[in-house]
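User: We ran a pulldown and think these components assemble together. Before we commit to crystallization trials, I'd like a predicted model of the whole complex to look at. Sequences follow.
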Amino acid sequence: MCEVCGCGDPERVSVELHERILAGNERSAAHNREHFRRRGLLALNLMGSPGSGKTALLEATRRAAPTLRLAALSGDLATERDAERLRAVGIPAHAITTGSACHLDAQMVHHALHRLPAIPLDVLFVENVGNLVCPAIYDLGQAANVVALSVTEGEDKPLKYPVMFRVADLVLLTKADLLPHLPEISVERVREALARVMPEPRLLVVSARTGEGLARWLDWIGAQRQALEPLAVAR
Amino acid sequence: MHEYSIASALLDLVEEQARHHAAARVLAVRVGLGELAGVEPDLLRQAFELARERTVCAGASLEIRQVPARWVCRDCTAALPAGLVLRCAACAGPARLAEGAELLLERVEMEVV
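Assistant: Here's a predicted model for the assembly, 348 residues in total across the polymer chains.
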């Protein structure tokens, strides 16, 4: 280096920024959102623990609303079982096998969207990888987040996983048919826990087995569809 | 754990800055991390140390500025205590998270020749 003026010496540069680390995912999510908007499609991101009853809920939704045109993208680490179950009840479904990834991101959903049949659809369920942590922070382009919490998981789960329940637009307390066997579980205490982590708690008690609560679940879906931006009149 | 994918998105942003400034190497990176951002600081640090190898960030330090959750009333903007029901005691309006969900790249220090 030059000892006279220091030219050629490395210079330390500090740059102040305000960049969202997940901006790349958010761009892909915006792209998906635009795709859903053009198709007039309600996209719901369905999250919850492994075994919380996400797939069973979709099977029951199919039975309860035979005329609603449903489709699903099912995220799974290793198998296509969920998508196979959904296809078996007549829901066009495509599996997103994530390998070891613990969540879906917007890019994975984007790729999978190309595999869905180009038929008119009303509701697309993105059934996320079973996990109450990681999926919460990845926007997929959905209109709303639905979290399935089964009665056997315990009423303190909202307090233990505040990041997930904060972003929920609706919580479904699933497997309600088991409540008579679980005297220690109180729906009221689940509600109270939710009110501490979710600013506007919305909870529906449902059972895929008995059909309890499914009418209200379908009402909620109907209201979400109503709230979609109306499509421009065809050219 | 999703912290590795966060660390790799972070490195992409830092590398973009390094290219833009024609930096020889990155010395330090600062991240703003909200309490409710869904990212564990220690896991992010470990993931960053793995992911930075053989990049312009090899040897760079990671500073994490932790931001506590701050809830305010959506209607009257009164501050609400965390851990309690998220309803305003004064006007019963629902809470809004004013701070604590951020996941930001805030500063990059580089050596430019």
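The first helix of chain B runs from residue 3 to 20. That may be worth checking against your pulldown data before setting up trials.

User: Thanks, that helps.
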